[in-house]
Amino acid sequence: MHMGNPDAVAQPPRSILLATDLEAHSDRALDRASVLARQWQAKLHVVHVLRPGFQGSEGVFGDDEPSAGREETGRLERQIRRDLHDAPDDLVVHIAEGEPADRILEIAEREGCGLVVAGTRGPVFADLVGQSTTVQLLRRSPWPVLVVKSRPHGAYRKVLVGTDFTPESRQGLETAAAWFADAGFALMHALDIPHRSLLLDADRGQAFALMEYDAMQSFADGARLSEGIRRELRTHIEHGPPEIMLRRRAIADDADLTVIGTLRRGLAFRVLVGGNATRIVEAAPGDVLTVRATHPVAATAR
Predict the structure, then answer these.
(1) Burial, 274: exposed, middle or buried (Cβ in 10 Å; 0-12, 13-18, 19+)?
(2) Which CATH architecture has domain 155-295?
(3) Averaged pLDDT, 194-220
(4) What b/e string do you get for 58-71 counting C-beta neighbours within 10 Å, with b at 16 or more?
(5) DSSP calls for 254-288
(6) Of the options 3.40.50.620, 2.60.120.10, 3.40.50.10540, 3.40.50.720, the CATH number for the domain spanning 1-154
(7) Rg of the chain over all Cα atoms, to the nearest angstrom
(8) Measured in Å, how far apart are the chain's first and last C-alpha atoms?
(9) CB of 167 closer than 8 Å to CB of 174
(10) How do strand 15-19 and strand 234-239 relate by DSSP bridges?
């Protein structure tokens, strides 16, 4: 029995925040945010944050040259608008100063943004000691975070959703289905069972497989999905480390977006990034959307 009305699921956000450092690698996130803003007819907030003491900010030039900071801000805004070749109609540029993650999240909350978009310089978690801005956003953002790795070629075509059969992963599936309704969807459960062949004989292995299949069907039936997505939804069950299994499936399916739902937790979540979520974001070959359970703006994003 199918549950709920898909219309009750959060619709695409009406305000998107793109965090950019204006380096060469950031153009992919810029382009993807622009594609999404046009696709959803959403307002796009582009945020660039100058760290305290950055050469060119007003604080560095001092009180005797107050115009220098304004000139730098104007230059950065012109660069952002120039880099957006096909800018959405509703575009707002924010040039701020401070710690990047702090200011980005402040602006996201103030502007009612329902999605934070960020790029990556390569391995997302290669600089855990330095705690890159993207890592901090993944850890701290109460809103969904889209980590852009690939150059966009239109709307997302194939979406792979990872599930552990929890309500959090169901929210990830439902959010992605509402936001990317025209894409093809695959749902995958990956479970790492060390020494599985030693623990499960043939009969127990078959019973366990049937239990997994029933759990997958129950999970999918309980999700609020459109009839089109439900009818075409492909399901997969694999045994092995989730980050490796999801990566292999994404490559095999040529998926351009991987989605995972994560818990809203306290300090422990911020430190660990929700266990497997860290490795999944790092291993995925393409873009990754993390959906925080019961995020506060999803249903009412402006």
Answers:
(1) buried
(2) 3-Layer(aba) Sandwich (3.40)
(3) 70
(4) bebbeeeeeeebee
(5) T-SEEEEEE---SHHHHHHSSTHHHHHHHH-SSEE
(6) 3.40.50.620
(7) 21
(8) 33
(9) no
(10) unpaired
Chain position carrying tokens 């959405």: 88
**Pick from 48, 10, 26, 40: which is nearest to 119 by CA?**
26
At 4, phi and psi to the nearest 5? Answer: 70, 175
Q: How far is CA 169 from CA 10, 144, 216, 277, in A?
A: 15, 13, 12, 11
- Tokens standing for residue 217: 């069907």
Q: Identical fold at 1-154 and 155-295?
A: yes
pLDDT tens sequence across 128-147: 334 588 888 988 899 999 99
In this prediction, residue 204 has a pLDDT band, given cuts at 50, 70 and 90, of: low
Does this model's pTM top 0.70? Answer: yes
Return the amino acid letter for 285: P
Q: What share of the chain is helix, strand, coil (3-state, %, to 5)?
A: 45, 20, 35
Place of tokens 């062949």: 197
Backbone phi and psi for residue 183, each to the nearest 5 degrees, phi listed first? -85, 160
C-alpha–C-alpha distance, residues 54 and 75, integer Å = 15
Higher pLDDT, residue 214 or 267: 214
| Block residue for tokens 């380096």 | 23
pLDDT computed for residue 235 by the predictor: 95
Domain ranges of the chain: 1-154, 155-295
Cα–Cα distance for residue pair 203/167, rounded to 1 Å: 30
Mean pLDDT within 162-189: 94
Consecutive H or E run containing 195: none
- C-beta separation of 20 from 119 below 8 A: yes
Please give the single-letter amino acid code of residue 136.
Answer: Q
